Amino acid sequence: MRYSRQNKILDIINTHEVETQEKLVSLLKKSGYRVTQATISRDIKELQLVKTLSPSGKYKYTVGTNVDQPISDRYVKIFKETIQTVAYSGNIIVVKTLHGCANAACEAIDNLNFPNVVGSIAGDNTIFLVVNNPDNAPELVNKFNEMIK
Amino acid sequence: MRYSRQNKILDIINTHEVETQEKLVSLLKKSGYRVTQATISRDIKELQLVKTLSPSGKYKYTVGTNVDQPISDRYVKIFKETIQTVAYSGNIIVVKTLHGCANAACEAIDNLNFPNVVGSIAGDNTIFLVVNNPDNAPELVNKFNEMIK
DNA sequence: TTTCAAAATGAATAATTATGAATCAATAAT
DNA sequence: ATTATTGATTCATAATTATTCATTTTGAAA
Questions:
Q1: In A77-144, which ranges are E strands?
Q2: Structure confidence by residue, pLDDT tens digits, A26-58
Q3: How far apart (Å, rounded) are the C-alpha atoms in residues B104 and B78?
Q4: Contact indicator for B131, B116 with CB cutoff of 8 Å
C-alpha cells in the first residue's frame, strides 16, 4: 500500500502544518495507515519532500519544487506498479489501479504527458482518460499495456 | 560576521554538494569562518535552506524556492545591519558595507526593488548602483539613510 | 568610558531523522 | 508444495539537527 500511503501523505502535508515525521505518523494513523517513522523517512525521501520554514517560524514539510532532476522515473515506476488493467470505449480510456492508488497513478500519467490525452479524472481505483479522438485510443491502450507488461 | 558568513554559505552550497551541517562547518573553516554546527543550524533556518535529494540520491542543502512568505523583512534587516554609508556622484550611488557583506547587501537592495535603480554591482565592501537619472540620486540616498538611521 | 540591553554564539543535550540488519509478505521459479 | 527472490516494513541505533541555557560580543545610551 505504499503508493496509496504516499498519496495520503501529500494530502496531509497540503492541509496540515506537519512539523515532524512523528506527527505524520500519527496523522496517518488517523487515516488508517499504521507505519513507523522509519518508513516515513523513506517516503519523504522518495517524495522529495523538504522541511521548510513556515511563515509562523516553525518547520514544516512541503513538496519540494525541484527543477533540475528527472523525476519521471518515479512516475514510470508508479505507473507500472499500480495499474492493473486498461480498456477503452470510444474516446474514453478506463484505467483500473490498486485500491486507493488512482490519484497517484493519475498524476503519474499526467506528468508523463502522453499524446492525445486531453483530460483525466481519478476516483479511488479507476481513472478515466479522455482522448482527443477515438481513433487514438487503441494505440494509447497498447502503449499502456506495453509499459505494465 | 553573520551576514558575511551566510553569504559564504550560499556560495558554498551552490558549488558543492553539502550533505550535512558538519560538512558545511568544515568547508566554512577552510574559508576562515570558525563556527559550530549550532550556528549553522540557525543560519540554515534563516536562509531557509532545505535538504533535498540530489540527483545522485544523496541529500544536499539547497536554497528553498518558497513563494508564499514575505522574505523581504529579512532583506530590510540585512540592509540595515550591513550598510555603513551611502553617497552619490552623478547617476552613481556608492554604498559602503561591512567587510565581505557587499554581496548580501546588494542582493537585498535588488530584492527590495527601489525605483529608478537600473543596475547594481557589488565588490567586497562596496556597491555601485546606477540610477536612471542623476536627479533621482539624492532622493534615493535620503531614503537609504532613513532606513539605516 | 561605563553600563545596560540585545544579539550572536558555543557547549551540551534533546529531539529528530536516516539507515543497516532482520523480518515478513508476496511472487516467481523449481 | 517448497524454495528462492524481491520489495516493503520494522526494529534498533547511528547520525544528524534543533534548541536550551550560559557566555560572549556588540552597539547604543548615559
A1: 83-89, 92-97, 117-122, 126-131
A2: 999 988 899 999 999 999 988 889 898 877 778
A3: 7
A4: yes
Instruction: Report the alpha-carbon distance of residue B79 to residue B147 in Å, rounded.
Output: 8
Nearest protein residue to C9's C1' (by CA)?
A: B39
Say whether A50 and B66 touch across the interface (CB within 8 A): no
Which pLDDT does position A19 carry in this prediction? Answer: 92
- Amino acid identity for residue A109 in this structure: I
Take residue B65 and report the three cell numbers written for it: 524556492
Predicted pLDDT of residue A71: 58
Greatest C-alpha distance within chain B: 54
Mean pLDDT of the B124-135 span: 81
User: Which nucleotide lies nearest residue B19, CA to C1'?
Assistant: D16
Angstrom distance (rounded) from CA B94 to CA B128:
5
User: Where residue A69 falls among pLDDT bands split at 50, 70, 90?
Assistant: low
How many angstroms separate the CA atoms of B128 and A25, rounded?
A: 52
Split at pLDDT 50, 70, 90, the class of B22 is very high
Asked if residue A41 keeps its beta carbon closer than 7 A to nucleic acid strand D, the reply is no
Residue whose C-alpha cell reads 562547518 in the numeric block: B25
Per-residue pLDDT band for B28 (boundaries 50, 70, 90) equals very high
- Beta strand extents in A27-146 (DSSP E only): 49-53, 59-63, 83-89, 92-97, 117-122, 126-131
CA angle A118–A139–A91, rounded 5-degree value: 40
Residues of A in contact with B50 (CB under 8 A): 50-52, 64
